[in-house]
Amino acid sequence: MVKHMLKHHAEAADGVFHALADANRRAIVDHLTRGPATVSELARLLGVTVAATVQHLRVLQASELVRSEKAGRVRTCQIDPSGLRRAEEWLRLRRTTWERRLDRLGDVLGESADERRSPPTNTTEETRS
Amino acid sequence: MVKHMLKHHAEAADGVFHALADANRRAIVDHLTRGPATVSELARLLGVTVAATVQHLRVLQASELVRSEKAGRVRTCQIDPSGLRRAEEWLRLRRTTWERRLDRLGDVLGESADERRSPPTNTTEETRS
């Protein structure tokens, strides 16, 4: 069940990590969290051409990190929270799977330590008699 | 303040997204969340050479997603939660910054709608008189 969920999320989060592996694309996401921006504003922010910015935006849109709308000749971009949530969920699921395993391990080690501390019942009886 | 925090996290999460952009490296992380494994076990899992696996592990270790220990000739790998947490935090901070902005926008739009719905005070007085 967990294995199936992990597999599903692995595929779904695929493009998001690729998209965020690039510093310019992370800068676009950073900027848009504070409000929408046009393509030319983003190009100015990055100090790259509009064509290069459009390429980055395509990657971000493909992994649902950004969405955009054209009104007349101006394209305005804004955050699409789906991609952020999907990547967050991918990481959270793995971190909690790992933490639960560690908790179970801690419980087992705790039980063995208790067994070592308290002497077996028959030893106690021998001491008493 | 938020801008500074965003910048700090952008740099810190840098390598983690690059590391997770690769399907084989994500498969290693997936596998290790369920327990430690040796390098040869991971190589078998991926169906690649030990040398290629070692390369992937270097990238994962550099971004604190995996740690490893050598005992004799066997290197055992396990999850390092630091990298997972850092990437999760990077995403969460951006998502919540965006959500807070949306909430504030909703409040402002709600207020304007209220103003439109309730007629101005002097109009009410005129109706009464």
From TrEMBL, chains A, B:
Keyword set, alphabetical order: DNA-binding
A GO molecular function held by the record: DNA binding
Protein name: DNA-binding transcriptional regulator, ArsR family
Region of interest called Disordered, as start-end residue ranges on this chain: 109-129
Biased composition (Polar residues): 119-129
SUPFAM superfamilies: Winged helix' DNA-binding domain
UniProt domain HTH arsR-type: residue ranges: 5-99
DNA-binding in keyword set: yes
The UniProt record lists the keyword Nucleotide-binding: no
